[in-house]
Specification:
The protein is of the alpha/beta class. It has two domains: 2-132, 3-Layer(aba) Sandwich (Rossmann fold), CATH 3.40.50.720; 137-333, Dihydrodipicolinate Reductase, domain 2 (2-Layer Sandwich). Helices cover 32% and strands 24% of the residues. The protein has ten helices and 17 strands. It has helices at residues 13-28, 46-56, 65-70, 86-95, 110-123, 137-148, 179-182, 186-201, 336-353, 361-380; strands at 2-9, 34-42, 60-62, 76-79, 99-102, 127-129, 154-162, 205-213, 218-220, 240-242, 248-255, 260-266, 275-282, 285-290, 296-301, 312-315, 384-385. Helix 1 (13-28) crosses helix 9 (336-353), helix 4 (86-95) runs parallel beside helix 5 (110-123) and helix 5 (110-123) packs antiparallel against helix 10 (361-380).
Length: 397
């Protein structure tokens, strides 16, 4: 069994999710060829780093992520920090001979994402962007049905990601509302997950036609560095600061294989918590998924017959992708943690075998190119072509 030492940069919500996965992955996927070692964690201050190490079970802590990159005992750098730090950390880690997993979106800008892909290609090391929602077993099952031809040729994809955690204008000014840190708003933060689903399930996007809305133009500043995601409200005397990113985006899509579709994302949808959905129509059937009901895939097949046609529920379990490693019967409950556990397994298995893993940095760059096209279309009001990453060369064509 190979020990794989992890250096985690970032001790917030995503750091917690990743740490949980490293602790649990071999409890689920066993026997295993690897043993994750939670070696070191880096945070913005010594105090935050020490707290995170104690809480998440890391052996060492530091207020300088470069110590993790320079440490020869660390095999993997895990980047769970705001978007404007991704490129610098990832490129330094790859150049130092470390495998890298990076949270989405891949980078602050497309140019940074291109540099990350070049560094990854030059290194020959495992690189992964953490679009963990595609590892929900029901989503992987949808992929299996599509590849088997169970719904025929895909005609249409409809995807949404609707949230309400920031619908209240008194929610504080998270870094997610600042272009200099996040790069974009609803597009980079949540639409990227929908676009990853679309590419994973249907294929590459050729053209987009989009519009965006900037709904809330200022928010109360935060008193601490903790990203509270709307759980703490500003008072009447709290200083205000501008919001300079979009709150909502809608786009039509044309896929390379002839399918069409639409995607929508907003953080201002009262009553929607984590409403990540897709509905896919094909010549032989349809699929529907809602992440708020993670165990369920709704299916309807043309072959069902006129007297019984309609959506029915398949509850994921041991008979479905990765189900053997999770729970012994269907519908016991799949959570956010399980998607991260599967993600961690696939990352470490790729390191052991030397094989690639998807989605990788090139996938992250491709999503960034779609993001750029959506932003451009929203500005022009016109259909806009999407540039394409050549996976053999890493170049954008």
């Amino acid at each position: 069994m190979k020990n794989i030492a992890v250096g985690l940069v970032g001790g917030g919500f995503m750091g917690k999710a990743h740490s949980l996965a490293y602790s649990a992955v071999n409890m689920f996927f066993w026997p295993s060829d690897f043993q994750p070692v939670k070696h070191s964690i880096a945070e913005a201050t010594t105090e935050l780093a020490e707290h995170a190490a104690t809480r998440f079970g890391f052996q060492h802590s530091t207020d300088d992520w470069r110590e993790l990159v320079d440490n020869p005992d660390i095999d993997v750098i895990d980047i769970a920090t705001p978007n404007n730090t991704h490129a610098e950390i990832a490129i330094a880690a790859l150049e130092a001979g470390k495998h890298v997993i990076c949270e989405k979106p891949l980078a602050l800008t497309t140019d940074e994402a291109k540099d990350m892909v070049k560094a990854a290609d030059s290194s020959g090391l495992v690189n992964m962007v953490a679009f963990n929602y595609r590892r929900t077993p029901a989503v992987t099952l949808a992929k299996k049905y599509i590849e088997e031809g169970a719904i025929g040729d895909v005609l249409n994809f409809r995807g949404t990601y609707l949230q309400d955690w920031s619908a209240d204008p008194n929610s504080p000014l998270s870094w997610r509302f600042q272009k200099s840190v996040a790069g974009s708003g609803a597009i980079g933060d949540i639409l990227t997950h929908v676009l990853d689903m679309a590419r994973y399930l249907v294929g590459e996007v050729d053209e987009v036609n989009a519009l965006t809305q900037h709904i809330i133009t200022e928010r109360p500043t935060q008193a601490s560095g903790v990203d509270s995601l709307g759980t703490v409200k500003g008072g009447t005397d709290t200083p205000m600061a501008p919001v300079d990113v979009e709150d909502e985006v809608l786009s039509l899509l044309k896929f390379a294989n002839g399918a069409v579709g639409s995607v929508e994302a907003t953080r201002n949808a009262w009553g929607r918590n984590n409403f990540l959905t897709f509905e896919i129509h094909g010549t032989e059937g349809s699929l529907y998924f809602n992440y708020e009901n993670r165990d369920e895939l709704q299916v309807c097949f043309r072959s069902d017959g006129d007297d019984r046609r309609g959506f029915r529920t398949v509850y994921t379990g041991p008979a479905h992708p990765n189900g053997h490693a999770l729970w012994p019967i269907p519908a016991l409950g799949i959570g956010y943690g399980e998607t991260k556990i599967i993600e961690a397994h696939d990352l470490f298995q790729a390191i052991v075998t030397g094989d690639g893993v998807r989605p990788d940095f090139a996938d992250g760059l491709q999503v960034a190119l779609i993001d750029d096209a959506i932003q451009s279309s929203a500005n022009s009001g016109q259909w806009t072509s999407v540039a394409r990453v050549n996976r053999d060369t890493g170049e954008v064509e």
